[in-house]
Write a structure and sequence with these properties.
This protein is α+β, with helices and mostly antiparallel strands. It contains 10 helices and 13 strands.
């Protein structure tokens, strides 16, 4: 029988080993018409699995409430019967969307639902034939979108909003380290399992199967808007899925991609500081769309003149660069890839 002090040493070692154990749990899911991935780092497999399941349920609830295509959603019902009322949460999101519309001078517009339908950019029916919108329908829909009477479409803010809700939940559970991604909208909290910053890859906008750069991030929302994400072909010409609210046509300017980085609240921060970070996921999501619509010069001017606290990366079309683009970025921990 070992001496008593060895018994206590073994017990203490087991306790410390249990306390320092790291569990990394990852779940993939499909929501908001895109693939989602949630990774949480805790000390318990069961806790990690529970957190991931709740994260999925949060995202599904948001989708079921604000989707333009789910027939039971508040937005779907309102677009057909405008006197339908919104819950407090959805009403607050619509107010936020309107605010972003105002501060971007209309470069972000949540009333493009009719225009998007006319272009059919979200129509996945194999038998659907894409065609240019008919003028008699198009110009009326464009006018309604500019007056705020068009159908509501929150696709350009919804994923970021869902990440805000996830961020709130993880904060309530005192979770410091997690990565939740909707491909083009990412929440990076704390650090990865190795104790390093999360590495967020940005696809090459000309060859999306390749890497176009890496952002090292913690406690950040990252939103990517790019033409390669989804496009349609009409009469042999490719059109991206991002609509310019001014013209009603898919964006065609000097940008290939716009990335916005904004701070996310974390339990590691003082409470007073966290209070000002409630909607940054939604802001980042909508703002990346707005900057992409603006083009290089207007986006740079907006960054320099606006008090909104964000950083950005712009992939700018270039015939002189062998990659087909140049990269401009502000104060971001970003590494370019050749």
């Amino acid at each position: 029988m070992p001496p008593l002090q060895w018994v206590w040493f073994i017990i203490l070692t087991l306790i410390l080993s249990s306390c320092s154990r790291i569990s990394v749990q990852t779940e993939n899911f499909f929501v908001m018409d895109t693939l989602g991935t949630s990774t949480v780092i805790t000390t318990s497999d069961d806790l990690g699995k529970k957190l991931n399941q709740n994260i999925i349920e949060i995202c599904e609830e948001v989708d079921g409430r604000i989707s333009k295509t789910i027939e039971t959603s508040e937005i779907y019902k309102f677009n057909r019967v405008p006197d339908n009322h919104f819950t407090e949460e959805t009403h607050a999101l619509l107010n936020l969307a309107q605010t972003v519309r105002e501060i971007t001078n209309g470069a972000f517009n949540p009333y493009l639902g009719e225009i998007i339908d006319l272009w059919g950019v979200n129509n996945h029916d194999e038998d659907f034939v894409h065609a240019l919108p008919q003028k008699d329908e198009f110009y009326g829909a464009l006018e309604r979108s500019k007056t705020g009477d068009g159908k509501i479409d929150l696709g350009a803010i919804g994923k970021g909003y869902a990440l805000d809700c996830v961020n709130d939940y993880l904060e309530s559970e005192s979770i410091q380290n997690a990565l939740v991604s909707f491909t083009s909208s990412i929440l990076a909290l704390g650090k990865n399992k190795s104790g390093n910053l999360w590495s967020i890859g940005i696809p090459d906008p000309v060859n999306p199967e390749n890497l176009g750069g890496v952002i090292s991030a913690n406690n950040k929302f990252i939103s990517v808007t790019a033409g390669y994400e989804r496009f349609i072909t009409i009469n042999g010409k490719d059109y991206g899925h991002i609509i310019d609210p001014e013209t009603g046509y898919p964006v065609d300017n000097d940008l290939l991609c716009a990335v916005v980085i904004m701070e996310a609240k974390s339990v590691a921060m003082p409470q007073k500081r966290r209070e000002g970070l409630e909607n940054n996921g939604a802001f980042a999501d909508a703002l990346s769309t707005a900057l992409y619509v603006m083009g290089k010069d207007r986006a740079l001017d907006y960054y320099e003149r606006n008090a909104l606290d964000f950083e950005m990366i712009l992939y700018i079309k270039s015939e002189s660069d062998p990659r087909g683009y140049e990269i401009l970025h502000t104060n971001v921990n970003f590494t370019e890839r050749d």
